[in-house]
Amino acid sequence: MAIDVNRAVGARAGSAKTTWSEREVVLYQLGLGAGADPRAERELAYVLEDRLRVLPSYAVIPGSEGVRGLTDVPGLEFDHTKMLHGEHEIELFEPLPAAATVSTEGRVAAVYDKGSAALTVLEATSTSEDGRPLFVNRFSLFMRGAGGFGGPKSPPAEGGPVPQRVPDVVAAVPTLPQQALLYRLNGDVNPVHSDPRIAAKAGFDRPILHGLCTFGIVCKAAVDGVLDGDTAQVRRFRARFAGVVFPGETITVRCWREGVIVRIVARVDDRDADVLTNGILEVTGKETA
Question: Which of 35, 46, 102, 263 has the fewest beta carbons under 10 Å from its own?
Fold first, then answer.
């Protein structure tokens, strides 16, 4: 197997047309744990159609549909069993609507040589029915064993160490034992998240939570804690997947506000394990120190 950067970069990685309504948004947000306090107005705004706020991380659902042609990309040969989703980023050009039809086009934006692995960045751009770009997903895929092809080196990672001060927000978010079984209803039915036998073959003692579910949980915690639930302020969210979450664990999310940037780290403190690092939430509005 070999990678040919000149053929792969710029190649189409899939396309899709996706329609969603309030029902799909509510299902997604319930899959992240929204509505845990059914008496809190902020929680109800994530699960009731008459006041629905859409988390920016919902963009990963239609975005993922637009890169399902990865296996057909010319010049990108690798062992698919050794691929890991290393980082994810969403960029929004306007707040997500509660119902829409979008067309998503995926392409290979970059391929970097990490020596023992390749790092491939897929970019999926979703546009409205009248042609407006609504959001972009960027998938950073770590392909073990596919490096050494003489390609460019990857740029320094965004983020880095968090500020050496007390976080502005600390949120402990419990997950349900059945969290992955709920989240899989959004379309990711990989059995490592649901079947104990498959999880054991992958080296886990029980099924693990979807990485993009953790991504959404952390996004919600930051939006709630820093922006008081104002989803319309978010323009970008990105993070690195640093470790797994087992359904039923509590994720502790720590946020530092620096102007229009919120720096984020998420951990399972009970295991002393990072689960999301290099988190960046970029917001609009008045800058604060």
Answer: 35
Most confident of 114-118, 156-160, 240-244: 240-244
SS3 55: coil
Which DSSP symbol is given to 116? S
Q: How far apart are CA 116 and CA 27, in angstroms?
A: 39
> Would you call 124 helix, strand, or coil by DSSP?
strand
Residue with tokens 């690798």: 78
DSSP 8-state secondary structure symbol assigned to residue 35: T
Provide the residue type at 125 as one letter.
T
Residues acting as catalytic residues: 188, 193
List strands edge to edge, sheet with 117-127: 12-20, 100-113, 117-127, 133-144, 83-92, 234-241, 273-283, 261-268, 250-258, 169-174
- Residue 278 gets the label, from left (phi > 0), alpha (psi -120 to 50) or beta, of left
Provide the residue count of the chain. Answer: 289
Mean pLDDT of 171-185: 98
Q: Which of 100, 108, 143, 111 minimizes the C-alpha distance to 125?
A: 108
CA distance 288 to 201: 48
User: Comparing 19 with 156, which gets the higher pLDDT?
Assistant: 19
Query: Tokens in use for 123?
Result: 């970019």
| pTM summary value | 0.94
* Nearby residues of 30 by Cβ (< 8 Å), 6 or more positions away: 47, 182
Read off the DSSP letter of residue 198: H
Cα of 12 vs its chain's centroid, Å = 21
Q: What is the DSSP letter of 154?
A: P
